[in-house]
Write a structure and sequence with these properties.
A hairpin with a 5-residue loop joins strand 14 and strand 15 (763-769). The protein is built from 18 helices and 30 strands. It has a five-stranded mixed sheet with strand order 26-27-28-1-29, with no helix packed on it. It has four domains: 2-58; 85-160 and 170-278, no CATH class; 308-412, no CATH class; 602-996, Methylamine Dehydrogenase, Chain H (7 Propeller), CATH 2.130.10.10. It is elongated. By secondary structure, the protein is α+β, with helices and mostly antiparallel strands. Residues 1-28, 51-70, 521-543, 962-1005 are annotated as: Disordered. The chain crosses the membrane at residues 287-309, 321-342, 369-388. It comes from Suillus fuscotomentosus. InterPro entries: WD40/YVTN_repeat-like_dom_sf, WD40_rpt, WD_repeat-ST_regulator. Keywords: Membrane, Repeat, Transmembrane, Transmembrane helix, WD repeat.
């Protein structure tokens, strides 16, 4: 390195020297000196290149390709900034849709409420986006910049309304009092209120209802209230990194709701707003038509009054004038009220229908039509009387009276029909039509006893009449036929033909066929019940057989098209065995190191850890379980390995050069979820669904402890062989191995999944989801509940800290010294390392000046090279817990450095065995490294680094392959691939020769 620097410095010096005019003249005067310097620079350059190549050769070859790659911190910064930028785009899209909706809603009547709620909602979005940006800028300062408060302009367009005096006021900035991190709960609650107000104003348009908008906004309201209630418990902690990170993670949940609302609101703008506008225009057009007709009819009435207003002598004349004057009044009222209703419906600032008094609403909507009908009725009555008052002819008076009566009856009938339809709609909420009510009423009337008797009499009379009519027809037809026959016999004038017998013969020939057909068609009705049941069952069995044959034919055709050989054609083919390519390097290989690895890890530590981890190889497969391996753990003294499986057995292996079976612990009832060794490794606990069993290291059952509730986890007290914790829902019980409850601890509304005890035994750390918010609310169906990491003081029985997390928490582990806490998550969320610090307790200073509480700070997130589905829990490993071990379900294993989060070793997915389910590290020894993995097929695979003093007979397969020259995996830094099964007697996949089996009846699962 120094050589290269010196050579570069010499080159720059030479370049500067040659660029100077004075030096250039000297160089031209002495060319030998210039040539000597150039030669010297070439030699220095060659030496520098050789030195750099030597240094690179000493480093792992896989590091070179990732030297310029992003660091772990850089990846987290980029991921966090991308999450916020995505959230910002979602908020901008919603704000844009709200602005478009406000512009489109201005054309609607009674739109002032929806406009006002949309403006308030846009203002709330601006405030929330500012708070989320401030929060993200604190977490990711290199990627996200802060927004000045002066740039917060109120998007409320109503602030730009014109004033009566002076010019238009400038836009006012948002009142930023209280816009600090502590206002998140209040902002969430206000956001929920604004969303509900907007939805209620949207539903005030009866012309159109969008269930998608209602569903999405109601779900968003529930979640906002849930988050606001949960965040209330972190008052005073919103500047802590853990709470800030939780709020930042909520952006993904909020963003999904905002996307749904944005899409549904866009569809509402495209479909709902035009529908509402059309309905309102249709109602306005109806009122306009009524106004036009009423105006025209008032003109007709006023013109007609010219003929009668002077006739005031008799009663008829006075009656005519009274009716016509009334008609004129009603027609004018109909026209005026129609214009009034039209103006009211088109007004933007009118109140919605449910906020108007009922008499006002009825007057505006119903009075124009009622007045027009009354005006027509009065005019018709006056016209009819006018014919008699003016002594018109009898025909004229009669025709006028009859036609007036007919038209009046039609008008009354239609009006009654309209009124009945309205009444039926109000009574049945639109579920029943008027015709259905009329038919039902008619049917009930027909069921009356008197009506039934009358119908019977009528039916009897109809039958008698039909019978008499048929009899008369038969008698008359018979008489006519006899007369014709007698006439033919009497007069043989026409020759007869022989077509009759031929037709008869033909009919006899066809008669058997017809009889067979008739017999076939009438057979089901003539058979008795058992025969019909047998024929029915036989037909079903035949149909089933045909269906099975068709399915087999389709399967055979598909297999033939795919080039596969059917199973029935290869009954004697040998079973397929896994083949291993000796030249393949796709088995296990460590991944390349990120640049943070060698930049932060001390050189000596890397030089010792990396080569040692590269030699990890599976040395033995323990195939005793017949089902999935649920959990496994090494004893603290390193002598035993305990496993639990879904085959209802737990096995204790003796650790050594070749693992042997110490005991098989068979549980008759209940699945085994966990095994836990005591501090000295002499007592083993196995966790059942509703109980705990106590065993010795030799596999002897000491006691079965039954519990009234489901047990989710067990944990020993530090340095104890008699006391342990049992996690049951929201409670943790302290028990002894005799089953006696010594103490209990309640964790409130948190359902604990797992707990861990600090080495000093003073604090209990637990993880689990929140059962309900403080106000009793639950999130919507698509939203994840809040999870928490709890630090509980065992002595004071109080919570010292509560850390919220969004992802599903699986397990928690504490390092030997107690300063580091490893959190494992479900599915594809990588594990995290949290540091537990003791700080002075402000609340306890009055009682004790040195009171301290524990607080968790996130130190690292262990990112794999690709997204991995995590199997089981993550564990500490190595000397002083310097490593973090994690296994993927596909069979890949990741090993990170604890303090730097650098990925030190990566074992690729295996080509043998099932998917991994759990992993455990042997903490008792660091020479060699040792860990075990469990898989779905029940195999327990033991991994270790080869010892330096191994004999040639016990060397690893990698060493044998290297000596044979049959592998090139070293150039990639790969871990070995298991060889094909060796000859009998030298197999590494073995079973223990002696097994101690212990049967125990556990509590019912």
């Amino acid at each position: 390195m120094f050589r290269g620097t010196g050579a570069a410095h010499a080159a720059r010096s030479f370049h500067d020297a040659t660029s100077s005019p004075y030096t250039r003249s000297e160089a031209f005067t002495d060319p030998r000196r210039k040539q000597t310097i150039i030669s010297l620079l070439d030699v220095l350059s060659e030496l520098s290149n050789e030195a750099s190549s030597d240094n690179d050769a000493n480093l792992p070859s896989n590091f070179e390709d990732d030297r310029d790659g992003p660091t772990v911190d850089e990846k987290l910064q980029v991921a966090g900034s991308e999450l916020f930028n995505k959230f910002e785009r979602r908020m901008d899209n919603l704000d844009k849709e709200l602005r478009n909706f406000a512009n489109a809603a201005r054309q609607l009547g009674s739109s002032v409420g929806i406009l006002s709620s949309a403006f308030r909602l846009r203002e709330r979005l601006t405030k929330l986006l500012f708070l989320f940006r401030e929060n993200a800028a604190t977490l990711f300062p290199r990627k996200i910049s802060r927004q000045p408060r002066e740039t917060l302009v109120n998007p409320n367009l109503m602030d730009r309304r014109r004033t009566w005096r002076g010019q238009q006021p400038p836009l006012r900035p948002i009142h930023d009092d209280g816009l600090d991190p502590e206002s998140f709960p209040g902002q969430f609650a206000s956001f929920a209120e604004d969303v509900v107000t907007f939805l209620n104003c949207l539903n005030e348009f009866p012309e159109f209802t969008d269930e998608a908008v209602n569903t999405s906004m109601r779900a968003f309201e529930v979640d906002l209230k849930y988050w606001a209630s949960c965040l209330q418990e972190y008052k005073g902690q919103f500047r802590y990194p853990a709470v800030q990170r939780y709020i930042h993670d909520l952006t993904s949940e909020i963003g999904e709701h905002i996307d749904n609302i944005t899409v549904n609101l866009s569809m509402f703008i495209e479909i709902g707003v035009p529908t509402i506008r059309f309905a309102q225009q249709h109602a306005a057009a109806n009122l306009l038509n009524l106004s036009t007709v009423a105006t025209f009819f008032s003109a007709v009435t006023a013109t007609t009054l010219q003929f009668s207003y002077q006739l005031t002598d008799g009663v008829l004349e006075k009656s005519v004038n009274a009716f016509w004057f009334s008609s004129l009044v009603f027609s004018i009222a109909a026209a005026v009220n129609s214009l009034l209703g039209l103006t009211w419906k088109q007004a933007m600032y009118r109140s919605p229908g449910h906020r108007v008094p009922w008499w006002v609403l009825i007057w505006i909507k119903r009075s124009p039509l009622v007045f027009l009908v009354m005006s027509v009725a009065c005019f018709s009555a006056g016209l009819m009387l006018f014919t008699y008052a003016t002594d018109q002819g009898f025909v004229t008076s009669t025709i006028t009276t009859v036609f007036t009566a007919v038209t009046s009856f039609g008008l009354a009938a239609v009006s009654a029909w309209f009124a009945s339809e309205r009444w039926i709609f109000v009574q049945h909420r639109g579920h029943v039509w008027l015709e259905d009510v009329i038919n039902e009423t008619t049917h009930r009337m027909l069921l009356l006893s008197a009506v039934v008797e009358v119908r019977k009499i009528i039916h009897y009379c109809n039958q008698r009449i039909l019978a008499i009519r048929g009899l008369i027809r038969r008698v008359s037809f018979k008489k006519v036929t006899n007369a014709i026959t007698r006439f033919r016999h009497k007069h043989h004038t026409l020759p007869t033909t022989q077509e009759g017998p031929q037709m008869l013969e033909i009919s006899h020939h066809h008669e058997p066929a017809l009889s067979m057909c008739s017999e076939y068609t009438e057979r089901p009705n003539s058979l008795d019940a058992p025969a019909s049941e047998e024929s029915e069952s036989s037909r079903r069995s035949i149909a089933r057989q045909r269906f099975k044959g068709a399915v087999r034919s389709v399967i055979m055709m598909q297999q033939q098209q795919a080039g596969q050989v059917p199973l029935y054609l290869r009954p004697f083919m040998p079973p397929r065995t896994p083949s291993f390519d000796r030249n393949s390097t796709a088995g296990m290989s460590p991944t390349r190191f990120s640049s943070i690895g060698l930049n932060t890890i001390r050189g000596q530590r890397v030089s010792t850890l990396i080569p040692k981890l590269r030699t990890l190889e599976p040395i033995q497969d323990l195939s005793i379980h017949t089902a999935l391996v649920r959990h496994l753990q090494f004893s603290p003294n390193g002598k035993y390995l305990a496993t639990s499986s879904w085959d209802r057995s737990s096995i204790i292996f003796r650790v050594g050069e070749s693992f042997s079976t110490q005991a098989v612990l068979v549980h008759v009832r209940g699945f085994i979820g966990q095994v836990a060794w005591s501090a000295t490794g002499t007592i083993l606990l196995t966790r059942l669904t509703r109980g705990i069993k106590v065993w010795t290291e030799d596999g002897l059952s000491k006691r079965t402890i039954d519990r009234p509730h489901s047990v989710s986890s067990i944990a020993w007290l530090p340095n104890s062989d008699t006391h342990f914790f049992s996690v049951e829902g929201s409670d943790v019980f302290r028990l002894d191995i005799q089953g006696k409850v010594l103490d209990s601890y309640h964790f409130g509304r948190i359902q604990l999944h797992n707990v861990a005890v600090t080495p000093d035994g003073q604090r209990l750390l637990g993880v689990g989801p929140l059962l309900a918010a403080p106000n009793g609310l639950h999130p919507s169906r698509t939203t994840r509940v809040e999870k928490r990491i709890i630090v509980f003081n065992i002595e004071t029985k109080q919570f010292e800290s509560q850390t919220p997390v969004v992802n599903d928490v699986r397990d928690i582990t504490i390092s030997k010294r107690g300063g580091n806490v490893l959190i494992s998550f479900e599915r594809k969320t990588p594990p995290q390392l949290w540091k537990m610090e003791l700080v002075r307790d402000a609340r306890g200073r009055e009682q004790h000046s040195f009171a301290q509480v524990a607080r968790l700070l996130l130190r690292h997130t262990y990112l794999p090279k690709a997204q991995v589905d995590i199997a089981g829990s993550s564990y500490f490993g190595g000397k002083e817990d310097q490593l973090v071990l994690c296994a993927g379900k596909a069979g890949d294993i990741h090993i990170w450095d604890r303090d730097t989060a650098a990925l030190l070793h990566y074992i690729r997915p295996q080509t043998f065995g099932g998917d991994l389910t759990c992993v455990a590290w042997n903490h008792s020894t660091d020479e060699p490294f040792m860990f075990a993995t469990g898989s779905h097929d029940g195999t327990v695979r033991v991994w270790t680094t080869p010892a330096g003093d191994r004999s040639s007979d016990d060397t690893s397969y990698l060493e044998r392959r290297t000596d044979a020259g049959a592998t090139n995996s070293d150039q990639y830094g790969s871990s070995p691939i298991l060889s094909p099964p060796p000859a009998p007697g030298s197999s590494r996949r073995e079973r223990a020769p002696t097994i101690r089996t212990t049967f125990s009846i556990g509590p019912p699962g």
